């Protein structure tokens, strides 16, 4: 692919290396070749540049055949260009500036369209200058890269930029500037040092030779980069709030392994992780950098399921297989104990409590140790009144000194005086997937298809909120659960991440459609760093870092368009014009099909649509992901069809209305008109 362009009608135009000019329909379902028409034929090879201007004209630049224009009525035209008295056959760059003017780059200079003529733009004392790239800056002016460096044209004057200035390719609506040059892609965030951005191939390796030729921002804020002959890269709209930290490769920072087996909060904004390569790392949730790479697998001891906890003294405890290890960061002090357990009994959980005790939970064993690792209790769960889920219990030590555990019959609490776990009054019955406590003192408990919030009064749990299917909470049993600093719960599952706001924000489910780079959150794999950011271990590999404050920010609402209306008129299938006044139909038209499309970055299969014909339908008529409503016939008169759409379980879009003017058929006309 050489270039791509999204026009004002949401039609995507693609310049390809060997297939010429292609278009992708507004509903992204039909690819069509655009060879021109009978009078003007576009070449199949050599289409290099595409743009459009506010007057609806699409402009196409070629390698050897000059400039072409497609007018709104479908008519094609070959546009003759002259520069220095010679015809222009090669177009090296083609853009539309923020004032709607067309700019053309050529090997002999630059041209700009003024009304219906093209004028030369002076870029250098020597007018014969080879223009390589043009870029329209949304802040004003045009950047130009020529054989003699980078220039910026603004306010009628051209300014030569310092040597080694990289050419900008995108300024996002968030204000970030992205540049591409010999050193690769760079992000120039305001007030920050330029940051290199690795471009990775399908294998995950950094493509050091990748050259970005074009970049664009879509309607919902997603960023796209086109590599010359090397593919397309995409950053979702909410890329800042979701970051997937992968294994370190090619000199770039990252993890010591491909998968995270366990994680736990560390002091400050960091978290501890144990990788599948047997390394223990402390990762900064803001910068992504890590330190203290330790081997958590002692020699000759088998490694199995892993758990981590940091105690109040800053010591790190790691349970791995039949081994418990303690590390003191910043020193060589470490010690190991045999746990005395057999085989693999599912996941293991480790909790360092405020009183200095350390609790370990497995499906076949509960242990308690003191701050020095001395074993105080070791027993089968059922002898302590606990029947943990088959995959193992989750333990929670809260700030009040209470120990809680998930159980097949709900939630249980440790009673020190009795030396056993007991059922909790007010807790839900049935298997509990996870339990978490927020800084506001409220407890959250996940059950199948429900997430509940409770207040503890010292004797029992009292429910304050419940979120189920009617609130948009999916039917799943979340086994990863954490509460952020704002008191908002985050639940994780193999199908994604769910944010539940008890303060009126409702339920939001995040997956790949919403910008989540990895969505298979592992059981017990979701934690909150002391300074507020979240981290998750995911089945796809790597460490998922989440900024809850960024996620809570306003979303850019995707647009909803009516992209096609068709009908059966007699024996012919007709397509009606959309967007230029009422859609003309007759009472004889049959099988009227109205197709809507939500312009978001999400998968079409996750979208929902609903329609309502004003004055004829009291209730909304829901459609599947195709966004199609079919009327066998429509009532005569001026009709208004209302349409809404949403992605997954998100909010419905604002109502989009389309007016249909249905003229009476001859047999529907009043008698006097018929006799006339």
CATH class of the largest domain: Mainly Beta
Q: CATH superfamily of the largest domain, called what?
A: YVTN repeat-like/Quinoprotein amine dehydrogenase
Low-confidence stretches: none
Question: Helix coverage percent of residues?
Answer: under 10%
Shape field = flat
Count of discrete domains: 3
Whole-number radius of gyration? 31 Å
On the 0 to 100 scale, the average pLDDT is 87
**What CATH architecture of the largest domain do you see?**
7 Propeller
- SS class: mainly beta
For the largest beta-sheet, the strand count, sense and barrel status come to: 5 strands, mixed
Strand content: over 45%
- What is the CATH topology of the largest domain? Methylamine Dehydrogenase, Chain H
- Count of DSSP strands: 62
What is the structure about, briefly put?
Helix content is 1%, strand content 47%.
Which features does this protein show?
flat, five-stranded mixed sheet, 1% helix, 3 domains, 676 residues, four-stranded antiparallel sheet, Methylamine Dehydrogenase, Chain H, Immunoglobulin-like, mainly beta
